[in-house]
Each structure stands twice: as C-alpha cells, then as structure tokens.
Task: inverse folding
C-alpha cells in the first residue's frame, strides 16, 4: 500500500512542479502539506521522497565531474520548491560529491612523488572547484586519505630491521608530504604552496624556545632565512598524525630520526663493526618537518632534544663522577661537557646532583643498616638538602628509629624526652608520627617487665651499678607507657632494689615513681630511706663475699 501511495505522490508532485502550480504557491510548505493530506500520505515519507529526488538531480548534474552555475541554480530551485533543509542538502553533497572527490584524491596520492604532474594538478583543481564541496568537507576527505598513507609509512618504519632503515621510511614520508601533500592541499584550496600557514595557537611563546637554543640539535631544525629561500615552499603541517598515534609513539619516531641525524647513515662491516658512510646536516631540516607531520608542539619537540642531550651528558658525567666526589678539576670538566652538548646550566646541575646523590645513597643506606649512622647524622644530611626519603628505604629509616628508641630504653639514665621522640626523630627520619608512637609503645611494653627481671638478676650478681641502670630503664619505659605496680615473689629483693637505688641519690620524682612501680607502701619506703640515710643498709651477699 505504501509503495502505491508513494508512486501516486511522486506522479502528482511531478505534475504540480511541471505545471507551475507549486512554484506559484505563496507557501510551498502549505501546498505540500495539503497534497499529503489529500493523498493521506505521511509527511515524513514525503520528505524522504523529496531528498531522493534531490539526490537523483544532483547525481545527474555531477555526472561530468563538475557543477556548473546552471546546475547550482537548478538544484537551488528544486530545494526551495521541495522545502529541503540545508542539512539534508549538505549531507547529499558530502556523500555524492564527496565520493567523486575521494576518487580524485586517491588517484593523486597513488600517483606518488613522480606522478603528481601538471595534468594531475589540473584534475585536482577542477574537482575541488567544480564539485563545490565546502572547504571543511574537502579537507576531511583529504585528511583521512593522507593520514592513511602516513600510517603505512609509520608501520614500515616500526618493522624496519635497523634504525637507519626506519629513518629511511620516515624520510620517504617527509618527501611525500613535502612534494605531494603540500601541493595537493594548495590545489584544493586554490592557493600557492608558498603561502605559509598561520602559526598554531598551541605553539609556545618564542622565549620558551629560546631557553633551549643552546641545544645544537634543536637549533639545526630551524632553517636560516637564506636556506628557506633555497628550499622554497614550506611543508604543510595541517594534516598530522596527532590523533592517530599516542604522544609516546610520536616522540619515539621523532627520536629515531633525531638519532639518525646525529649519527648519519652507517654501513655494517665484518666482525660487527660499523662505519658512517653518509652524514648530511639537511636531515635536521627534515627532522623539523617530521615534527610537523607528527603533530608535535615545540615544547614536545624540545623535550625530545633535551632528553637526548641529558642522556649524553649523564653518560659522560657518570664516568667523571665515578666515586660521587666533586672537585674543582671535575667541575671544569663538567662545564666543558655541558657546553659541548648545549645543555642549560640548570639541567646540567640536576643531572650532576642526581649522580652524586645516587653514588652516596648506597654508602648512606649501608651505614644505616650496619648501625654506623645516627639520627643526628641523618639530621645533618637533611639540613644539607640531601633527599633522604628517596635515598634510604622507609623500612631502613623505621629500623633506625626503633634502634634509637631501644638505646634510650637501655641507656640507664631513666630519661625519656617525648618532644624529641615523638616530633623531632620522626621529622628527621621522614616517618609517620603514628607509626613512630606504635614502635615506642611496643618497645616500652616489652622492656618494662624485662627491666625488673634484669635488675633482680644483677642484684644477685652483686652488680650494683647495673641494678641502678636497669631500674632507670624501667622508669624510662614507664614514662613512655605508664605502668601498673609490678609484682615480685621475693619481698626482700624488692626492698634491696629500692634501697640500692636510694644510695644513688636520685630525684624525688624518680624515687616516688619507683616506689609505686615496686609496690612498696609508704611506711616501708620511709623505713628503707632512714636506713640508707643512717648508713645501716647492707646486703647479706656482701658479708658472704667478704667471708669468701
């Protein structure tokens, strides 16, 4: 049923157009709507019929590959009569004219460097102007075709057996861009290829580039005015591989050609040796053109040159600074090397600093692991701006903190400085404060009861100074982790421990805290104090020792 109605609508439409009724109507849209109502035909289907009629007419007009003024006028009249939207018209032109233009572009590209002659130029110009595509549509078609060829060159460059072979494929792509693509775009736009494109908005300011003008390889990519005049037309950089390849891939390709520019073409000889057979500084100019094809900004290009210069500087600087020590003579050597590779002073200093830091980092970590370095020495290094967090592993720094706290709990002084332990030490070592506190608490709990056991053992060995030190360690642990009174099965030994500690003239604060920890009541403590003060306190073991 729809097919029959469509045929009827087409026939009636032909009648009203040829008879002039539609053209004479004050409102074409109303006239067409009334026609649809009369035939009970869907207006949406009617619009599809109108588009189909327009496309048929357009195909007839471009059968000879050209749209004359008369063709354009006829198409415009048809569009107005049938109320065809501009978007539908543009789509039809892009589709039908685009296919014809695509064939011409493919033929021009296939002709290659040798085949893009005056006849091909005329054919491209005729298609670009005669098919009346918008500039955007023509460029989109051309860009897709050109980028496809670029990608094929890149694939061959990546699979090449050597860097020289890879560079040769990239060079072919550069020549193809210079000779075919640049001229192709000029013919499409109706411009002379001598016209330089407008500067890209993405390009960095000139003063940013000037900072790196000391890089010889970068400077060579920018031709002088005299050389520009000799070279003639500037290569196009409007069609690029920016959206086809990742930045990493594009910079790798650029780097490959840069190394080729530096080393030149090499030929293999027996026994694995190679000789340079050809070296041409004009390759640097082609390198600049390659950067345009790859869609690299000036900053991205400079980064590749800088990276390579830093690599060359680093390799030779590592030999000069083999032991990590700087001297006046070595500084002069490094300054001369810096000038040779054209590396800015700031970048050279970063490389030198990283080398010396790496050389001493092994020695520092070894000293920490072997217990030959203290937190005080670590603090001095940090104040000297040594990057300890990267030089010394976190685990090693935490072990040094644990070792230092263990020394505090076994120093025999009874001192525990919370500010130093919980603030300064973690800051010096670059460790988390909460982690530091956990280490302290775990050690204090472990050492607390052990200190009492050790004090009793030393008492039985009649090591009186050792007893006092152990009791002080007990007090230091108690400061870190306030403890409950400790229990011991022999009360006499507890009294002897307290009395011996009193003989050492400690502070009242320490006496009171030790009394609490040993579980001695006030009356017993007073009696023991009076006994020690009167000189009446003696150890039974002393008499046995004397008799012995």
Result:
């Amino acid at each position: 049923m729809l097919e029959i109605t469509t045929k009827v609508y087409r026939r009636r439409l032909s009648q009203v157009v040829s008879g002039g009724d539609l053209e004479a109507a004050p409102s074409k849209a109303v006239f067409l709507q009334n026609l649809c109502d009369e035939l009970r035909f869907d207006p949406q289907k009617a619009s599809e019929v109108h588009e189909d009629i327009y496309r048929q007419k357009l195909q007839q007009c471009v059968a000879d590959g050209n749209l004359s003024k008369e063709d354009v006028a006829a198409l415009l009249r048809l569009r107005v009569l049938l109320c065809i939207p501009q978007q539908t018209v543009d789509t039809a032109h892009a589709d039908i004219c685009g296919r014809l233009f695509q064939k011409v572009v493919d033929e021009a590209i296939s002709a290659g460097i040798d085949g893009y002659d005056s006849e091909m130029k005329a054919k491209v110009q005729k298609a670009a102007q005669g098919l009346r595509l918008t500039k955007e549509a023509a460029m989109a078609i051309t860009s897709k075709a050109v980028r496809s060829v670029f990608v094929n060159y890149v694939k061959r460059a990546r699979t090449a057996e050597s860097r020289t072979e890879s560079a040769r494929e990239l060079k072919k792509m550069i020549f193809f861009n210079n000779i075919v693509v640049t001229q192709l775009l000029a013919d499409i736009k109706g411009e002379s290829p001598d016209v330089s494109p407008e500067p890209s908005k993405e390009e960095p300011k000139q003063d940013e580039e000037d900072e790196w003008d000391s890089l010889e390889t970068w400077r060579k990519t920018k031709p002088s005015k005299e050389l520009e005049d000799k070279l003639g037309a500037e290569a196009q950089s409007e069609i690029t591989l920016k959206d086809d390849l990742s930045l990493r891939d594009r910079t790798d390709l650029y780097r490959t050609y840069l190394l080729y520019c530096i080393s030149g073409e090499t030929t293999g000889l027996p026994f694995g040796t190679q000789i340079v057979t050809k070296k041409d500084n004009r390759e640097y100019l082609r390198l600049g053109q390659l950067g345009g094809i790859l869609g690299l900004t000036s900053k991205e290009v400079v980064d590749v040159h800088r990276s390579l210069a830093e690599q060359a500087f680093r390799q030779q600087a590592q030999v000069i600074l083999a032991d990590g020590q700087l001297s006046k003579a070595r500084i002069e050597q490094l300054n001369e090397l810096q000038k040779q590779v054209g590396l800015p002073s700031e970048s050279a200093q970063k490389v030198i600093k990283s080398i010396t830091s790496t050389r001493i980092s092994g020695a520092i970590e070894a000293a920490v692991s072997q217990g030959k370095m203290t937190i005080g020495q670590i603090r001095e290094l940090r104040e000297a701006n040594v990057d300890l967090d990267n030089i010394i592993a976190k685990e090693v720094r935490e072990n040094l903190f644990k070792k230092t706290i263990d020394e505090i709990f076994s120093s025999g002084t009874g001192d525990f400085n919370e500010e130093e332990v919980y603030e300064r030490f973690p800051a010096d070592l670059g460790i988390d404060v909460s982690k530091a506190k956990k280490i302290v608490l775990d050690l204090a709990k472990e050492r607390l009861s052990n200190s009492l056991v050790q004090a009793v053992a030393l008492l039985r060995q009649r090591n009186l100074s050792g007893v006092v030190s152990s009791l002080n360690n007990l007090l230091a642990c108690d400061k870190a982790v306030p403890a409950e009174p400790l229990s011991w099965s022999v009360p006499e030994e507890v009294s002897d421990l307290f009395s011996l500690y009193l003989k050492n003239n400690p502070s009242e604060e320490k006496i009171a805290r030790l009394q609490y920890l040993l579980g001695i009541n006030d009356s017993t403590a007073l009696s023991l104090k009076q006994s020690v003060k009167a000189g009446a306190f003696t150890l039974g073991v002393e008499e046995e020792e004397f008799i012995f």
The longest helix spans residues 86-115. Residues 195-206, 227-232, 269-277, 541-548 have pLDDT under 50 and may be disordered. The first strand starts at residue 265 and ends at 268. The chain is about 70% helix and 0% strand.
